[in-house]
Fold this sequence. Notes:
Layout lengths: L4 E5 L3 H13 L3 E5 L2 H10 L4 E5 L7 H8 L7 E5 L4 H9 L4 E4 L4 H15 L7 E4 L2 E4 L4 E4 L2 E3 L3 H12 L4 E3 H9 L8 H14 L9 E4 L3 E4 L3
Parallel strand pairs: 1-2, 1-3, 3-4, 4-5
Antiparallel strand pairs: 6-7, 7-8, 8-9, 10-12, 11-12
Amino acid sequence: xxxxxxxxxxxxxxxxxxxxxxxxxxxxxxxxxxxxxxxxxxxxxxxxxxxxxxxxxxxxxxxxxxxxxxxxxxxxxxxxxxxxxxxxxxxxxxxxxxxxxxxxxxxxxxxxxxxxxxxxxxxxxxxxxxxxxxxxxxxxxxxxxxxxxxxxxxxxxxxxxxxxxxxxxxxxxxxxxxxxxxxxxxxxxxxxxxxxxxxxxxxxxxxxxxxxxxxxxxxxxxxxxxx
Length: 227
């Protein structure tokens, strides 16, 4: 995709300007809206490739804007907010946000999250064979190789790894993982992902205690970082 368009929905002018300068310098087109109404109208009339959404808007809560957007808008939405409470982060992710960054944020990290979200939306995460340094995952053949050697995974371990890889860079909440892998009847069992993530790390990470692929987002869930 050439010059993706990013809509900034944020009423703080300094933040708008910082984002516009940073994103433009890295090959993105930008536009901005200062209210929920302006943002929703712009998305409806000129759908951007990605939305950066603040939760503290003057005319509506960003969580409500997120819900309204997700009724029809399928491109990535990244939340930028000062709200650090786990319940706010989990609520936004469960409502369809692709990512959540706390203000103040590091521009390098924001750019990485944007690239990851755009890559996912373009379907690149669904390419059958994924290579991440010394780790090669064949989603179609259901095989994993590390340093050229085959890694033996159980069916559940592979299903979990596949879910993470297909959502590379996106935070997956505990509830989402439980619904996708074990079913809606298991959403009250957060120990399931924790146990299987631990097993996966022992098999695919160079150091399970300092994982570089499967990263824990404390109190929220897990993120697969491919590099």
